[in-house]
Design brief:
- The structure holds two protein chains of two kinds.
- Helices cover 36% and strands 4% of the residues of chain A.
- Chain A has a two-stranded antiparallel sheet.
- In chain A, strand 1 and strand 2 form a beta hairpin.
- In chain A, 16% of the residues are buried.
- Chain B is an alpha/beta fold.
- Helices cover 37% and strands 12% of the residues of chain B.
- In chain B, strands 1-3-2-4-6-5-10-11-9-7-8 form an eleven-stranded mixed beta sheet, sandwiched between helices.
- In chain B, helix 2 packs antiparallel against helix 3, helix 5 packs parallel to helix 6 and helix 9 packs across helix 12.
- Chain B is globular and about 65 Å long.
- Chain B starts with 7 loop residues before the first helix and ends in a 14-residue tail after the last helix.
- The chains are: A mainly alpha, B alpha/beta.
- Chains A and B meet through helix 1, helix 2 and helix 3 of A and helix 9, helix 10, helix 11 and helix 12 of B.
- Chain B: Belongs to the amidase family. GatA subfamily.
- Chain B: Its EC number is 6.3.5.7.
């Protein structure tokens, strides 16, 4: 049985880009642990040689021609952003 | 009698006979919303001005149109993108997403038939939940008794139809989110075969499971709506390129000679099926028999593993899909960030509710290095076994029948603090999503003490929605449950 530690919870939160408080770490450690223990019910089943299902329909890659077409205007695209400048989305300094 | 007692066919007749105008219907919707939505709380955003304007226009065109959806007021779940109309997914993160730039394909199709969008419906945030209590705005209540939950995640979609606020609605179903609220609110809800209805413009939760479907008062109305929204869409690469039949044509074929399978797991007290629910479903099975169908017990032996597999798979897909919400291009960005990583982290932590965070965390964990094979891949293998269970039954049977949910609606607050207890609610609906087959919930009775609706689930093989409609219509015509309405105040 896998237990999940507080450090693991902090690590996963970082990977998921979530800021979590110490209280949330405590709650999350317990809740995730419970859910993961429950999920280990699946280990009752021998799945050796069973193909995983990623998708229920037998679809192959769907390709389309790479052709330009009219979609949305730049002005509209920027309109829903909190911050933009010179026709670009604006974010804090990265480098 | 209220206009909401009419079927879509009857409404078209009345529009053409000039007994009613489209404006009357739209006004009736908003009057009922004014009268009851402070109790039901189904709507997050209303579209009143535009809807009335559209109605006035359509009233000029009625003589040139005879489509059953012409001028019909509908509600849309708030995870379906509507051009120029706020789309929030019931999340704070999208509370300022006032001006979506395009319409979902289902909206384009409804708009082409002149359906009128009355407003956007409440839901569990990003469709994660079974009660609509995970909405970051407010709880929606069950119109049959407002102390009770309407189910979820399409709680607003089911409650608005049950309360007579709209003539139909669209919901989305990833693990039961159309069928379970339809069951709790006593309406007809269909989750189509995966790939039948385009997901373009549906805000993605779990892309291999999500489907949009209609919630209606009657089986016939449901078929009319599916006729419009089903079909291949080049904007959704997982959309199935199959011929779409006229579902209405299937309704009156009857069930004589049909072979119906009843999975013993679906009536078992081990899965928490309440005796009362079992009783109503068994009574429904007797109705099918009396109409000439043969009924046999079968087994879906991997049913008990479905919930565990589902929460690993759906959460994994959600953790990837919800990575797009970063506060940069749209959505509410945090005010507290000095650097880029903090923009992401604080935007997401301030914008997402607890259940959404929990599932993102679970999914990120299941996909992370060292755990992928043990959890994610294992769950995908179990999904194969569950799908094979259904394939095997459908070799010999036309439909599968059972309850939609183990219980009728329960009280607001009863399960919200225990995620695992809440997840177990979906035990009878989740296998259908994992297998990708279509499933419908329709009313089959009411609980004895509280008079709350109980839902019958009908499942068919891939792309055999016609068979579902056929069986559901025969059952509905032989019974009276769909004629009962919740007693609420409001417009008559």
């Amino acid at each position: 049985m896998t237990d999940i530690s507080k450090d693991q919870v902090r690590h996963v939160a970082h990977l998921a880009r979530l800021a979590i408080t110490d209280d949330e770490v405590d709650t999350m450690t317990k809740q995730l642990g419970d859910i993961i223990h429950y999920a280990e019910l699946l280990n009752e089943l021998d799945t050796t040689g069973v193909e995983p299902t990623t998708h229920v329909l037998d679809l192959k890659n769907v390709m389309r021609k790479d052709e330009p077409r009219k979609w949305i205007d730049r002005e509209d695209a920027l309109n829903n952003a909190t911050d933009h400048q010179n026709n670009q989305f604006k974010v804090p300094t990265i480098l | 009698m209220s206009v909401f007692d009419y079927t879509l066919e009857e409404l078209q007749q009345k529009l053409h006979n000039k007994e009613l105008t489209v404006t009357d219907l739209v006004q009736a919707s908003y009057d009922q919303i004014d009268a009851v939505d402070d109790q039901v709380k189904a709507f997050i955003t209303l579209n009143k001005e535009a809807a009335l304007k559209q109605a006035a226009q359509l009233d000029q065109e009625i003589d040139q149109n005879n489509h059953p959806l012409f001028g019909i007021p509908a509600g849309i779940k708030d995870n379906i993108v509507t051009k120029g109309l706020r789309t929030t997914c019931a999340s704070q993160l999208l509370s300022n997403f006032d001006n979506p730039l395009y319409d979902a394909t289902v909206m384009e199709r409804l708009n082409k038939k002149n359906v009128i969008t009355i407003g956007k419906l409440n839901m569990d945030e990003f469709a994660m939940g079974s009660t609509t209590e995970n909405s970051s705005y407010f709880d929606t209540r069950n119109p049959w008794n407002t102390d009770y939950v309407p189910g979820g995640s399409s709680g607003g979609s089911a409650a608005s139809v049950a309360a007579g606020e709209v003539f139909f609605s669209l919901g989305s179903d990833t693990g039961g989110s159309i069928r379970q609220p339809a069951s709790f609110c006593g309406v007809v809800g269909l989750k189509p075969t995966y790939g039948l209805v385009s997901r373009f413009g549906l805000v993605a939760f779990a892309s291999s499971l999500d489907q949009i479907g209609p919630l209606t008062r009657t089986v016939e109305d449901n078929a009319y709506v599916l006729n419009v929204i089903a079909g291949h869409d080049k904007m959704d690469s997982t959309s199935a390129n199959v011929d779409v039949p006229n579902y209405h044509d299937a309704l009156k074929k009857g069930v004589e000679g049909l072979k119906i399978a009843v999975p013993r797991e679906y009536l078992s007290s081990q899965e928490g099926i309440q005796p009362e629910v079992r009783e109503k479903v068994e009574a429904a099975i007797e109705v099918f028999k009396s109409l000439g169908a043969t009924v046999e017990e079968v087994s879906l032996p991997h049913s008990k593993y479905a919930v565990a597999a589902y929460y690993l798979l759906a959460s994994s897909e959600a953790s990837a899909n919800l990575a797009r919400f970063d506060g940069i291009r749209y959505g509410k960005r945090t005010d507290h960030a000095e650097n880029m990583i903090d923009v992401f982290k604080n935007t997401r932590s301030e914008g997402f509710g607890d259940e959404v965070k929990r599932r993102i965390m679970l999914g990120t964990f299941a996909l992370s290095s060292g755990y992928y094979d043990a959890y994610y891949k294992k769950a995908q293998q179990v999904r194969t076994l569950i799908k094979q269970d259904f394939d095997k039954v459908f070799e010999n049977y036309d439909i599968i029948v059972g309850p939609t949910s183990p219980t009728p609606a329960y009280k607001v607050g009863e399960k919200i603090d225990d995620p695992l207890l809440m997840y177990a609610d979906d035990v009878l609906t989740i296998p259908v999503n994992l297998a990708g087959v279509p499933g419908m919930s329709l009313p089959c009775g009411f609980s004895d003490d509280e008079g709350l609706p109980i839902g019958l689930q009908i499942i068919a093989k891939h792309f055999d929605e016609q068979m579902i409609y056929r069986a559901a219509y025969a059952y509905e015509q032989a019974t009276e449950h769909h004629k009962k309405r919740p007693v609420m105040g409001g417009a008559k």
